[in-house]
Amino acid sequence: MMKFLSKVGDYAKDAVQAAKYIAQGMAVTFDHMQRRPITVRYPYEKLIPSERFRGRIHFEFDKCISCEVCVRVCPINLPVVDWEYNAEIKKKELKSYSIDFGVCIFCGNCVEYCPTNCLSMTEEYDLSTFDRHELNFDNVALGRLPTKVTDDPMVTPLRELAYLPKGVMEPHAVDHTERRAGKLPVEIIESAQEQSES
Amino acid sequence: MEKIAENRTIIQYLPYVTRWDYLATMFTEAITVNAPEKLADVPVPRRASYIRMIMLELSRIASHLLWLGTFIADIGAQTPFFYVFREREMIYDLFEAATGMRMMHNYFRIGGVAADLPYGWLDKCEDYCHYQLEKVDEYEKLITNNPIFRKRVEGVGKITREEAINWGLSGPMLRASGVKWDLRKVDHYELYDELDWELQWATEGDCLARYFVRVREMRESCKMVLQAIKQIPGGSYENLEAQRVLGGPKSEWNSIDYQFISKKPSPTFKVPNGEHYVRVEAPKGELGVYLIGENSVFPWRWKIRPPGFINLQVLPQLVRGMKIADIMAILGSVDIIMGEVDR
Amino acid sequence: MNGIDLQQSFVELLAGLGLTPAVARALWMPLPMLLVILVVTVGALASTWLERKISAAAQQRIGPEYAGPFGLAIPAADVVKLLIKQTTIPAQSDPLLFVIGPVIVFISVFLSFLVIPFGQNLVISDVGTGVFLVIAISSIAPIGLLMAGYSSNNKYSLLGGLRAAAQSISYEIPLALAALAVVMMSNNLSTIDIVNQQAGLGILSWNVWRQPIGFVIFMIAVLAECERIPFDLPEAEEELVAGYQTEYSGVNFMLFYGASYANLFLSALLVAILYLGGWELPFPIDRVAEVLRIPESSSIWQIVAAFLGITMILLKAFAFIFLAILLRWTVPRVRIDQLLDLGWKFLLPIGLGNLLITAALKLAFPVAFGG
Ligand code: SF4
Ligand code: SF4
User: Fold this and answer.
1) Which pLDDT value is given to residue A91?
2) CA gap C340, B186 in Å, rounded
3) How many CA atoms lie within 13 A of C244 on its CB side?
4) Which residue's CA is the nearest one to ligand 2's atom 8?
5) Per-residue DSSP letters for C81-123?
6) Less Cβ around it within 10 Å: N or C end of chain C?
């Protein structure tokens, strides 16, 4: 009889324990209900792409020297550099340049290795079209600049974590113009000089 | 992927490697640069090594976070999935700020990393680590003691110590079975020895033990990142810049230790003669590359040892005689990425 | 308290217009049925909306936002979408069973609402065996699920259907035992009498206090009957794709989906009726009438009381739904053997014990436990 009772007691204890831990879990989910949603409502709110963001490539026709380094470092040898040797000026003359963004993987190698810095990466990432051939950008299309998220009156720009002020974890909590974490090197120099003066 | 590697220079190949294990991207890059680096004896500056460690550990947290979400979702609770994505998003924001992309970073370079950290980055990274530590406690509160969760994973998918070694398992799978084996401790690569951290392991070898190992590793990784932030030579980028200006062109701040890369690799970097095997401790286990070079721009052989593929092989043995529902729990606890299983 | 007799008033009204009482009565008949179907549908739709909003909030999301105010139009959009979707019947299936399956499930759930009272006289039929009618009807649903699972000719569906049947059958018993304890105290199976027996002292006279164990058993069993996480094994999507619903689309799927939420609504109402005092307010409403010196039989007071009653019962039901939803988004799913273990080895003995204790208490304290 005692054994049976103690078994029942253990059983009851287990049940209470289980109920307690489930309640604990529910307290966590319940607590989340009063927190601010972290969702970015995309077309109405947009994150500002980071400074190093590797979006659609921008190309400056006049700077290019047709060296084809970009082709050689590209994993898929993607950029098409169409040039002709001009005997008069003893230089290569660029006729057209194109990158197919349907194929590009936005790795940034071409930008990194271009000797004249005529390639750069923009913050444009929404490259959807109805026909994939429209993504084959020629040098004119490559020369266009995208609209900035911050300039678009239709959207609320939000900052990514790395650009928020120190201690702020959530973009909705602050305005996007608020100063980001970290000091500028200039400020560090100034404060160091002030210290050495005083 | 291996064949692609044999037709590409290392520079060209680097953007591809993040597709092996697209949830622990930094590790694939790390191994891809480590292999030729070691073969060609390229030095890595201390600062670069620290940056690499921070990135690797963040990547480990991201991978474990996603594992946690999918594992719990596999056994039926959907909510933690959203919580881990919230935190993972932050890691990716940090990655995006430093590397330019969220997942396909292309950040590691032979002899260092592609660029120094942007200003303010270390501050935010520190914020993040403190935040993450808090959140791990929250997950534990939500999950660890839940009786249903316990019932589902305790004693399920048991691997003994011998079995684990015989199957060639690695990473948390191995450590959960009572083997103290972590390449960060074994191989002493990068500068992990300068950080004060502990190897996480358990002895039970079941799904619960693997869960514990991974959750504790998340904590440990957070602490490692915090330490690395404190110890990184030159401190934050803005400080380094300021010191360089103050110190003038001859200052010690310009020495090799404070660079983010020793020498930018040329597009025609040659893989020297020789062969060797290099490995790192990825979140899923031992990620290795067996590289044979023959003094050309392309590697002659590039064999990848993906942890997921080898850990997955133990699955048929584990699920024998189990219920259908257990397959999900076991498969979830193995933590595989099909990208590297069938690379 | 007699409540208002709507039928009587309606018949009198029509009789006043010069119709015979028999015709008036015939005219009256379809009205409450339509009303109940409407109420149930709205209740089920509201539950789907709540499910989305609550799960969103628990996950720090927003949930439906742009369809109507607070996304309230989302359930309607769902219905429209499912209605205009093509209904596919798999080629290798058994078409007759395939179509009948969801209909049976749907009808059996809606039929149970016959005996759910929203107020003293706000019930379609005050059947003498009310509670057991609900339990009996609800055990028809697994037949439909089994049909659906079998006729789909798909291994996941079959597994899901079998799980559904096993689960419903094993949880029917603790459910019935828990209800039996309540019935024992009220000496009556009628849902109305059960509520009336809980009136008097307001919140203190509710059955929760007298039947705490029964309450917990009933809640667990009812969650299992509704096939909701942590007991949603028949449609465990990680294991069985979608269980018996795998092959369904369009209207047929809507019937399943609607039935599952209507079932949740039904269960919530049952919990409210059996344990939370139905339409009773947390304080005795008759006293209020006395204090305010309003004659209890005045029609204004009757309408106010009925209105308050409906609000109360809905509030209680939705409180339970809220709990169920929050639980669903918190806990993982149990395994089938653990589920059956819980049903047979835990709930059943406890349910029996509870019944025994209730009987003993009833004999010992007939005043408190309904002599
Ligand atoms: S690397 Fe730069 S300069 Fe050379 S071809 Fe490409 S875009 Fe032109
Ligand atoms: S971004 Fe990468 S893939 Fe695209 S063109 Fe440049 S090098 Fe090629």
Assistant:
1) 83
2) 47
3) 33
4) A74
5) HHHHSPPP--TTS-HHHHHHHHHHHHHHHHHHGGG--SSSS-S
6) C
| Predicted TM-score of the model (pTM) | 0.85
Phi-psi region of A49 (alpha: psi -120 to 50; beta: other; left: phi over 0): beta
Q: Kindly identify the ligand whose nearest atom is closest to the C-alpha of A81.
A: 1
Identify the H or E element spanning C299.
helix C299-328
Average pLDDT, chain C: 79
Kindly state the tokens that stand for A93: 């003359």
Question: Is A75 near ligand 2, meaning CB less than 6 Å away?
Answer: yes
Q: Can you tell me the distance from the alpha carbon of C48 to that of C54, in angstroms, rounded to the nearest whole number?
A: 10
CA distance C48 to C328: 13
Query: Helices C30-58 and C299-328 meet at what angle, rounded to 10?
Result: 40
Quick: pLDDT tens for C137-184: 888 888 888 888 888 888 888 888 888 888 888 888 888 888 888 888
Task: Note whether C155 contacts B: Cβ–Cβ < 8 A.
Answer: no
The whole-angstrom separation of Cα B124 and Cα B122 is 5
Query: What is the least distance, in Å, from the CA of B22 to any CA of chain C?
Result: 22
The best mutation among A76, A101, A113, A142 to test binding of ligand 2, ranked by most ligand atoms within 8 Å of the C-beta, falls on A76
Contact between residue B306 and residue B343 where contact means Cβ atoms under 8 Å apart: yes
Per residue in C69-84, pLDDT (tens digit) is 887 888 888 888 888 8
B43 closest CA partner among B106, B104, B111, B97? B111
B220, two tokens: 């440990």
Residue carrying structure tokens 């500028």: A184
Q: CA B223, CA B197: separation in Å to the nearest integer?
A: 8
Place of tokens 């190309």: A59
Angle between helices B46-74 and B25-40 (to 10 degrees): 140
What token pair was written down for B253? 């701040």
Q: How far apart are CA C202 and CA C279, in angstroms?
A: 11
pLDDT at B301: 87
3-state SS, one letter per residue, for A152-183: CCCCEEECCHHHCCCCCCCHHHCCCCCCCCCC
Atom 6 in ligand 2: residue holding the nearest Cα: A110
The structure tokens listed for B16 are 């591809």
* Burial call A63-85: b when 16+ CB within 10 Å, e when fewer: ebebeebbebbbbeebbebebee
